[in-house]
């Protein structure tokens, strides 16, 4: 399970405003091997964490390139997954390493959606003056959606903006935070705090309906923005900011080992290529 909150504006009114504010949690088995975010690819152009699970090495859940291409993936909550389907994590690096525009890439993915278990995929391009963010979920419409700027969006393990209680709570807190017009360091700090909220949002009949087949205790754990369950939960927080001048701040906070009390934070700053 994962959750993402974001707001984008291709042409912010103020030079101190942001073209993108994104806050995301990655939820996974604590024991699943993965690599913390670092630059990789041709000319170290791409910044992302990477999956190291056997058979899925090189997949990712969230990444951005120096060219301003961004992709983010969440799985669709479904107790009946097919283990023989292709790895969804490759959808992120595949977009980051090629030149196809955001929505065209998602149309291509849509034509092959039967090859994967349920997923949601965001693709974006922030280098161009007219930034674009597109969304596709293979459990929803067959056509990708070109998202309208300046709105607050939330994506978890259902379709975009599905009104799970934790999604509604998170969007409310995210909106309040981004409307404070905080300096970068303070904004990152508050978004990381938002992503660490372990409060349960129960009962949630909308989430429970989709989660048929999950245990009651698991559904309860999954109702929090920051998930805590034995051996499974939120193990990575990521905040990505892109300002009006194309400066990127990428902050990643990772659980150390399998200890929920031990965390390591790394930050990266760079300017998008012209």
Structure write-up:
By secondary structure, this protein is α+β, with helices and mostly antiparallel strands. The protein has a single domain (2-163, 231-271), classed as 4-Layer Sandwich (Penicillin V Acylase, Chain A), CATH 3.60.60. The protein has six helices and 14 strands. The strands form two sheets. Strands 1, 2, 10, 11, 12, 13 and 14 form a seven-stranded antiparallel β-sheet that branches. A seven-stranded antiparallel β-sheet has the order 3-4-5-6-7-8-9. The longest helix has 14 residues, at 165-178. The model has no long low-confidence stretch (mean pLDDT 95).
Radius of gyration: 17 Å
CATH hierarchy, class: Alpha Beta
Name the CATH superfamily classification. Answer: Penicillin V Acylase, Chain A
Main sheet overview:
7 strands, antiparallel
Distance between the termini: 35 Å
For the secondary structure, the number of strands is 14
**Structural class assignment:** alpha+beta
Strand content: 35-45%
Shape-level CATH architecture: 4-Layer Sandwich
Outline = globular
| Poorly predicted spans | none
Determine the CATH topology. Penicillin V Acylase, Chain A
Helicity range of the residues? 10-25%
Tally of separate helices: 6
- Mean pLDDT, as a whole number? 95
Keywords:
7-stranded antiparallel β-sheet; 274 residues; Penicillin V Acylase, Chain A
Please give a quick description of this structure.
The protein has 274 residues and is an alpha+beta fold.
């Amino acid at each position: 399970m994962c959750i993402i909150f974001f707001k984008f504006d291709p042409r912010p009114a103020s030079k101190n405003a942001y073209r993108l504010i994104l806050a995301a949690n990655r939820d996974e088995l604590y024991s699943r091997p993965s690599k913390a975010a670092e630059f990789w690819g041709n000319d170290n152009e791409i910044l992302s964490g990477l999956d190291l699970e056997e058979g899925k090495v090189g997949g990712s859940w969230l990444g951005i390139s120096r060219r301003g291409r961004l992709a983010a993936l969440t799985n669709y909550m479904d107790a009946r997954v097919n283990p023989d389907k292709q790895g969804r994590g490759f959808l992120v690096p595949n977009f980051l390493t090629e030149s196809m525009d955001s929505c065209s890439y998602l149309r291509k993915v849509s034509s092959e959606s039967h090859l994967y278990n349920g997923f949601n995929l965001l693709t974006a391009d922030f280098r161009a003056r007219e930034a674009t963010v597109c969304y596709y979920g293979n459990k929803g419409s067959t056509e990708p959606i070109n998202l309208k700027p300046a709105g607050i969006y939330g994506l978890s393990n259902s379709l975009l903006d599905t009104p799970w209680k934790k999604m509604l709570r998170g969007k409310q807190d995210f909106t309040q935070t981004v409307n404070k017009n905080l300096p970068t360091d303070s904004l990152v700090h508050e978004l990381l705090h938002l992503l660490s909220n372990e409060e349960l949002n129960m009962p949630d009949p909308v989430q429970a309906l989709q989660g048929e087949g999950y245990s009651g205790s698991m559904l309860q754990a999954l109702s929090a923005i920051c998930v805590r369950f034995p051996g499974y939960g939120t193990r990575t927080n990521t905040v990505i900011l892109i300002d009006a001048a194309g400066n990127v701040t990428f902050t990643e906070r990772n659980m150390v080992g399998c200890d929920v009390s031990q965390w390591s934070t790394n930050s990266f700053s760079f300017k998008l290529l012209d």
